[in-house]
Amino acid sequence: MILAEELAKMAPPESKESEAPDKSLPQRPNLATAEDKYYGRRVHSWVLVRAGSREMAETVFIEPTTARKYPTDASPYLGLEYLWNHSNFWVNIQPGTIRKVPAIKNLDTNLKDTTKWEPVRAGVEEIEIPVVVEDAEQEAATGEATTEDGDAGTAETEAPTTSGQDTNVDNAAKARKSMTDAEDVNEEGDVSISPEIDVEQTLEMPASWVPKMVIAQEDFDTTCPRGHKTTRYHRCIHELFAVFGPCSRWDGLVEKLCTFSDDACKNKSEERETFRRRKDKLCERIVRHSDETKIERFEYGSAYGIKEIREIPDVERKTHFYVSSRAADQLETRHEVFGKRLTETFSGRDDHMVYRSIVYDPEGTARAIEEARAKAEADAAAAAASGPAKRRPKKVKFEEPPPVIAKMTQKFELPVNSAVPPHQCVSKRVFDIANESIRVDYHYGSGFITTTQKWFYKDGTSSITLVNPKDPKPTEIEIQEEFHALCVTEKSIASEIRDVEREIKDIVMNRAKEEMAIDLLSPYFDISRIKTAEESDDEEEAEQDAGFDYLEPYMPPIIPGHDLTVSEAAEAMEGCLNALKERLIDRANIIKGRLDREDAALVKRRNAFERDRDVMTPAEEEEFNRACEESTFKINILNQRLERHEEISKRRFLELDAKLRADPRLAALL
Fold first, then answer.
1. Is the pLDDT reported for residue 167 higher than 90?
2. How large is the average pLDDT for residues 529-544?
3. How far is residue 455 from each of residues 353, 430, 451, 640, measured CA to CA in Å?
4. How far apart are CA 380 and CA 396, in angstroms?
5. Buried (b) or exposed (e) across 169-199, using 16+ Cβ within 10 A?
6. β pairing state of 183-185 and 60-63
7. How far apart are alpha carbons 158 and 163 in whole angstroms?
8. Contact between 409 and 430 (Cβ < 8 Å)
9. Average pLDDT value over all residues in the chain
C-alpha cells in the first residue's frame, strides 16, 4: 500500500565557496560526514506555505519541530518528493529537486503545471476561498490583494502528515481559493454554491499496512507497563513510572523531571516529582538545588489540612492550608522565619481576625537556652556527687525552652453590616512585650483621615487619641478595665502561640514519619484485579480438588496399558481402607480425649466442693453450681458428637468399600 505521506531527506546543504551563507538564517552543524551511514536517507516531513495574502511575499518552508522559516532556495532539506493538502496529492517530477541534491534550488511551486507536478487525482481543481464583496471599497481592496497568478490573495499550505496515517490531514493550513464558477453571491450577501459542483472532494488514500494498535486496558491503566520510561532532552531528563500493577514504585512516584545546569547532566538545577495514590496525599515535590528550596504539594484530605509546604532549610518555611479543613481556626497561611518571626493569615473567622504575627527575641532565646543547659548540668553534677564515686559521667540532656516572644500583632477586618461605627471597630492590636506596652488602632471612620489610637503601658499610664470629637472621653475606670482585658488577651494569645509552636513540631514529626513509612492506597483497578485473581485462584483450587484421585496414593507403579494383578489390587484396596480407618479412629480419639478431660475436671471440682462445703460462701456455691452446669453441658455435647462420629464412620467405611469395588482399576478383585 501507498501512504499519503510526504517523504523527504533532511540534511544540511553543501556549502560552496562562491556562495556566502546567509547570516540572517539560523545555522546548524554539518552532519554529512563519512561516519553517518544514514546521510540522505532520513525521512522527514514539513510544511510548504505558498505566497499570497496574509503578508506572505514569498513561498517558504516551515520546519514543524523548530518553527523556523526557510526560503525554498535556502533550506536544509536534500530533496522533496511529494506534496499534498486536503484536496489532492502531487508528485514532484522536477529534476534536481527530488532526492539527494545538495540543496533544493529553483523549485517551482505552481501545482497547476503538470510538467512539474503530477497530481494523483486527475481533474480535481484547487478549491478556492469564496470572497463575499459587500461594497465597492472592499471589492477594490480585494482586487489590490490579488496575486499575479490569479489567486484570491490567500496563502495556501500543503501540510505533511506523520507515518501511519491513512487519510488526508487537516493539520495543515487549509487553503481555499474563490470558486467563481461554482458559487454566486446574491443581493443579501449570502454565498450560494452550485449543486453541479461536488465541493466535498476529498483525497481517499489506501489503507495503511501498519496493523491496528491494540492496548490492553490493564496496560493503559498503568500508563507505563514496563515500569519505567526515560526520555533525555537538552539539559533535562524526563522519567515516567507505572501507576498501577506490580511494576509500580513503592513510594507512589509516577513522574520525575530533572533539569541540569550543564550539558553533561551532572549538576541538577531543579527536580520535580509527581506522586499518586499516597496515603499522606502528597502529589508533587519540587526541589531547587540553587537555593535548596523544597516545595511539597498535597491533595485535599492531608494531615492538618496542609495544601503546600515551601521550605528553605535553616532559613524559612511557608505553609498553605485548606481553609475548609481548618474549621477550628480558619488558618490560611503560616510563614516561619526560623528563630525570628512567625506570621499567620486567616479567612472567615468569627472574630474577624485576618492576620497575626509574632516577633521573637533571638538573644533572649539564646540566654534562656543557656540557663536551661546550665541548670541541667548543675542537676547532673549534684546527682553524680550523691551517687557512687566511680560512676561514669553521662551526657547532659535537657529540654530547650520555647523561644522568647518580643512582640505580638493582630489585625482585624471591618465587620460587614455591623451596628458599631467603623471608627470604633478595632483594626490592629500590638502587644510589645519587650517594651511593656500595648497599642490599639481602630478602622478609619467615614470622612476621617486619621484613626483612633490607644496606648497602654505596664506602669499604669495610658495615652488615648480620639478621632471623633463627639465621642465621649473614657473615664479612668473604663481605661483600667480595658487595660485589664488587654492583659488577659495578651496571656491568651501567648498561650495560643505556644499551641501553634507545638503544632508546628507535630507537623514536622508527622511528615518525617510519613516519609519513613510510605503507605499507598489501592485504587479501584488494583482492587478489581486482585479480586479477579483471587476468584481465579479459588476456581483453580476447586478444579484441583475435583480432579484429585483418591486411589492414586495407594496404587503401585504400573506400566501404562497394563492392568493390576489380584494381589496389587487387594493391596491398594486395603491401603485405602486402612487410611480411612486410621483417620476416623484419630478423630474419635480426639473427641474421647476432650470428654475424659471434662469428666476429670468435673470430678475434681465436686471433690473440692465436698471438702470445703462448710466454709464456702453463697457466692462460691453459686459459682460451683454454674461451673458444674457448664461442664455437664460440654460432656453431653461431646457424648453426642462421639455417637454421631461412630455412625458416620461406619457409613463412610461402607461407602468407600463400595466405591473401591466399583472402581474399574480394581476389576481384578471381582
1. no
2. 61
3. 20, 10, 13, 93
4. 7
5. beebbebbbbbeebbeeeeeeeeeeeeeeee
6. unpaired
7. 16
8. yes
9. 80
